[in-house]
Specification:
This protein has 423 residues and is an alpha/beta fold. Helix content is 42%, strand content 17%. The strands form three sheets. The chain has an eight-stranded mixed β-sheet with strand order 4-5-2-1-7-8-9-10, sandwiched between helices. A six-stranded parallel β-sheet has the order 13-12-11-14-15-16, with helices on both faces. Strands 3-6 form a two-stranded parallel ribbon. Strand 7, helix 4 and strand 8 (148-152) form a beta-alpha-beta unit. Helix 3 crosses helix 4 (130-144), helix 4 packs across helix 6 and helix 8 (239-251) crosses helix 12 (358-370). The longest helix is centred in the N-terminal third of the chain and has 19 residues, at 101-119.
Length: 423
Amino acid sequence: MPSVGNLFDRPMSSFRVLVLSRNYPNEVIPQLGLWVEGLVRHLGRVCETRVIAPVPYCPPLPGFSAYTRFRRIPSADQVNGIEVMHPRFLTGPGYSLHSLEASTYYWGIRHRVEQLRRKFPFDLIHAHFSYPDGVVAARLGRQYRLPVVITEHAPWLPWMEEYPRVRHQAMWASAECSYHIAVSRYVRDTVVHFTGETKKLHVIPVGVDGSVFTACENGQGPLMNQVLFVGAIRPVKGLDILIKAMRLLSDRGRKLKLLVVGESFYQSYRREYQRIQQMVHELRLTRHVEFVGRKSPSEIVQYLHQSALLVLPSRAESFGAVLVEALVCGTPVLATRCGGPEDIVTDDVGVLVTPEDERALAEGIEHIIRHRSAYDATRLRQYALQRFSWEKIVNDTVCVYREALDVSGSEEARRYCQSVAEA
């Protein structure tokens, strides 16, 4: 991928990007798609962006609070200075209408896109997730003869094998788009499994904001008995395996405490939350495990500074942004070899273990605590910022935009590409 230098010293460009993403923070689920919002916010320093983030439609029926809550979301909003539109589209419970969602999504946003284009003639469409967002973006790209970039945040295996109609649509979108970005090598490999190798596939990870996730400045060291988990509490995160590891460590005489930061914002997730709490009770770990709920980024930073390590015991992980956030704060990490973490965790910054193995997790926790002084906070932060800062991620993303526009061949695209090349 060609380098265009650092773009952050340039004035605001007239180049315009339309972002499509169902996963975007809103009034009901403020933590949804924070990684997408982070990219959009930082892209705003080099181009103009608008976001269409559709939400499920539900009539005002009693007894359907899981769906009717989305009615509280305004049709348009401002998120960190970016205009975000929330048109409604039809979805069904669970995966009942999954294979039709690209169609209902398209018809739900079509008129809003037409209205937006009259006042904001976007030059490129960037969709997050291949399905349904990428399929809709590819359809709009054909309609307006514009380049389309798709970022895939989720592995295509195994779910694409289980939904052939979805797979067919996603593969069509991958073939139609100018560039297909994966957030990790693991995600890229799962896409290649279906599409084959292609030059349009790139890996650009999720970024981290070093001004939010900061180094500890009070000179106090971490609590060497405090272990931290941060994330949505749902089965794929493997928190049950970590709880079992805590039982093993307690049996070995380790007086450790696990802090669980996060919540379950979907009904199916809440069942997992209740199951984990019951497990803690049954394993007699109530004094060793504390659930502190959802916390703000600044509060999470404090927990990271205070903890000996962060653990991500996932069964599968597309990337693992919380690992990068911990490293930028100077905290070593323990994760499973489950996909994305392999792009982040090295022996110098933490430990990788086998998934579904509580003994391996327990040994990894003991190893990091035993060698905690070897993990220099400044070095951990430098490592993470060099590879995952939003400045680097935005530069890489704009490189893809440039190539996509260059291929599209419009006069405005050529002028923009020339300005970027000279930046």
